[in-house]
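Per-residue structure
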Amino acid sequence: MENLLFSLNATIPIFLLMVVGYFLNKMNILEDALASKLNSFVFKVSLPLLLFVDVSKSNFKDLWDTKFVVFCVVATLISILLSILFSLHLKDKTIQGEFIQACYRSSAALLGLALTSNIYPDVGVAPLMLMSVVFVYNVVSVVILSFFKAEQSKVNYKKTFVGILKNPLILGIVIGVLVSILPFKLPQVINKTISMIASTATPLGLMAMGATFDFDQAKGELKPSLFCTFMKLIGFCAIFLPIAALLGFRNQALVAILIMCGSSTTVSGFVMAKSMGHKGVLTSSVVMLTTLLSAFSITFWLTILKSFGLI
């Protein structure tokens, strides 16, 4: 019950922010044009700073665990490959890029450290999952969303490569890693300013997503949304948690893997999809569904892991 309450407290406010954005749009306060501008601000400014803050404050040199990092990266890449294979069966190929991203991309940055620290006083290797997986998420998302654009008949490889190098989220992670290994810390006034701007990423991104949500369009993509939701919360956990346990991962490491595989689809996926010319309807639907249901699914998986004495 304690884990369920914690999970609900972590996920329900996220859902409510989407609802607030939806009603603000209906009241003509958060209009479509403003929501579009907010998406651009979150993608280019506040979300990169949020990733920078999360990554830069972690001491990777002391925490480094090659086996754990390799597992996280390989499991993520397999999840992406499976998502691509599943997407081949879609009737509507225009949503293929969004479908793939919504299937594999988790709220690792949002829930990873929070849930682990709620269970253990020391988060252990959880920041390593954040550093390795979030980087892979963003690099692959740029590639996937570039390759599977509905209006693009031929992929421009040079443009895609440049897009990866210039992607604000990737830059935020790379700069964060560089700052984390510096022999000195940034001045407190700079850290505080960056943190204040970074803190706007989640609420603004969620309200902008809610403001642009279209129920009529979402109904037309209900089946792929439900499939993404199942894979995100149940499917990938059922595949990778037993493997992780057999490989000897326990406690904080196993909780971090659970968050990587089974947390809700992140709002940054919606922000990136919209910024790269996709409709965002499927992504927003999956974010809403997984956010609502993840509190119960994560609690279910935690109960399973505890019953086997793995955490």
About this structure: The radius of gyration is 19 Å. The mean pLDDT is 85. The chain has 16 helices and no strands. Residues 281-307 form the longest helix (27 residues).
